[in-house]
């Protein structure tokens, strides 16, 4: 399946982009590994996940076309 | 009214005044509490904060703001109207980056609800800030190491 991943905050800085398409993804676990391969520095940061604009604290079950956001701790205000 | 939360650049006084216009439509509200947040020129390791660059997950900001408003209305049933503005992009030191306005039947609930909204914005809205210093270096705030 194809997943569009959005990066925010410092993660976008590290990735040097706000999003990236990942193809032939088999699971969320697989996606995590692919992202860590691309951006090994991510392992040093905490981040939460949103799938299709819904924050989740679980490891999500993905389907083709899903949009996944990686969000470091919020710091608005 | 969560669609108009995010403002490109600093929140202007005109936007705050426009936000207050709707409050006249609630004659049962006797108190309006307003919080205005500005970018502060903090000293950090011998340099000063020149500006903050805010970024946001816009679609999620709207959804999460609705949740904040709902929970605040539930906790403070006297609340009649809520307005919230938050900047995205560059806001220079001294400029306004956030404004929260709450009208309620009595002042106590207006003030408490406004304070609650400000606290929740900081932890619930997917907004990030990058401090830009006078020497043009920068640092992400709350870039916590795992």
Q: What do these coordinates show?
A:
- The complex is a heterodimer of chains A (77) and B (146).
- Chain A has two helices and five strands.
- By secondary structure, chain A is an alpha+beta fold.
- Chain A has one domain: Beta-grasp domain (Ubiquitin-like (UB roll), Roll), CATH 3.10.20.30.
- Chain A has a five-stranded mixed sheet with strand order 2-1-5-3-4.
- In chain A, strand 3 (48-51) and strand 4 (54-56) form a beta hairpin.
- Chain B is α+β, with helices and mostly antiparallel strands.
- Chain B has one domain: Alpha-Beta Complex (Aldehyde Oxidoreductase, domain 3), CATH 3.90.1170.
- In chain B, 31% of the residues lie in helices and 38% in strands.
- In chain B, helix 2 runs antiparallel to helix 3 (107-124).
- Classes of the chains: A alpha+beta (77), B alpha+beta (146).
- Chain A binds chain B through residues 6, 8-10, 12-13, 43-46, 50, 53, 55, 69, 71-77, and chain B through 37, 54-57, 59-60, 63-64, 86, 97-98, 118, 121-130, 140-146.
Shape type of chain B:
elongated
Count of separate structural domains of chain B: 1
The CATH architecture of chain A would be: Roll
* Class based on secondary structure composition and strand pairing of chain B: alpha+beta
User: Reading side by side through the largest sheet of chain A, how are the strands ordered?
Assistant: 2-1-5-3-4
Query: Quick one: CATH class of chain A?
Result: Alpha Beta
Radius of gyration of chain A: 12 Å
The major pleated sheet of chain A works out as: 5 strands, mixed
